[in-house]
Amino acid sequence: MQFKVGDLSLGKVLEIHPNGALIGLAEGEAGFLHLTEIAEEPVGRVEDYLTEGQQVLVKVIGYDRLGRPSLSLRRVTDRDREAAEFHREAIEFRSVLANRSISVPLPERPEERLEWRLSRWLDEAEAALARLRKHRAGRLSEKFYTD
Question: How many domains does the chain have?
Answer without folding.
Answer: 2
